[in-house]
Specification:
It is a single chain. The chain is mainly β and 270 residues long. The protein is 12% helix and 38% strand. Strands 10, 11, 12, 14, 15 and 18 form a six-stranded mixed β-sheet that branches. The chain is rod-shaped.
């Protein structure tokens, strides 16, 4: 009987050891099954305006796998349709500032997820085609704010002599002095500092004054005194004035200079 009891105790002990070994093996298999390399669920995305000088920002998308998972980025420059991509050297941050070389292309971002069990890559869809940054309007020349400074205007821009006015409004036989005013502009904006020249045609009707600069309103004013050649005809009805505007220091026949003929009414009855 004692021998049988001993055998039973031995069998029972062996069974317990086998059970414990089975539990340990099962637990080990469960732990291994819970470990997994990263797997992408939704792809990375890019936010921001696809325009030169703007900043794009990448998101990782969503992933599954054993924690912790770390992420790295690589920006790609692609063709207009999102193909033929190549890595952008040094562009490995979460954000990327678009450059002139990116204009006309699309960009993608490739995210690599890593954990102790492995690594996986996923790539975003392409951005829209990158646009060039809008050009800031120049602060000089005819695009600047009025009044324009004539010194900042250069060819191929041209000065313009607008229709002038005369005082008195009608030139009479008895008129001894006339004052003519011409407004000088560029693209419709007043030009300050332009030199205005004026003379009656044909000559010798009125004196030829020295050139006068235009003011902030673009107006140059000149006074003329009657000469013996006025009137030029017995029935003269118009006084024709040749007017010219130019930039100081420039050739009067080139550069930004301009010329025109303007006529004013004449009444010889008085």
């Amino acid at each position: 009987m004692n021998r049988d009891k001993g055998r039973l105790v031995f069998v029972a002990a062996g069974s317990i050891l086998l059970l414990l070994a089975a539990i340990a093996a099962f637990a080990g298999k469960g732990t291994a099954a819970a470990q997994a390399a990263p797997r992408n669920v939704t792809p990375p995305t890019i936010s921001g305006t696809p325009q030169e000088g703007q900043t794009l920002t990448a998101s990782t998308g969503t992933w599954t796998g054993t924690a912790p998972i770390t992420y790295t980025y690589q920006w790609l420059r692609c063709g207009r349709n999102g193909g033929s991509c190549s890595e952008i050297s040094g562009a490995i941050g979460r954000t990327y500032v678009l450059k002139r070389v990116d204009v006309g292309t699309t960009l993608r971002v490739r995210v690599t997820a890593r954990n102790p069990d492995g690594s996986t890559r996923a790539t975003s869809v392409p951005t829209a085609v990158v646009r060039r940054a809008p050009q800031a309007p120049p602060t000089t020349g005819c695009a600047a704010n009025a009044p324009l400074q004539v010194g900042n205007i250069s060819a191929p821009e041209r000065l313009e002599v607008n229709q002038g006015d005369i005082s008195p409004g009608i030139v009479r036989r008895s008129t001894q002095t006339i004052t003519v005013r011409f407004r000088v502009t560029c693209r419709g904006k007043a030009v300050q500092g332009a030199l205005v020249y004026a003379t009656a045609v044909p000559f010798n009707q009125f004196t030829v004054p020295a050139e006068q600069p235009t003011g902030a309103d673009g107006v140059g004013q000149l006074s003329m005194t009657q000469l013996s050649g006025f009137p030029a005809a017995a029935r003269q009805q118009l006084l024709v004035i040749f007017a010219r505007a130019r930039k100081p220091g420039e050739n009067a026949l080139g550069g930004t200079s301009t010329r025109r003929l303007v006529s004013f009414p004449v009444d010889l009855r008085r």
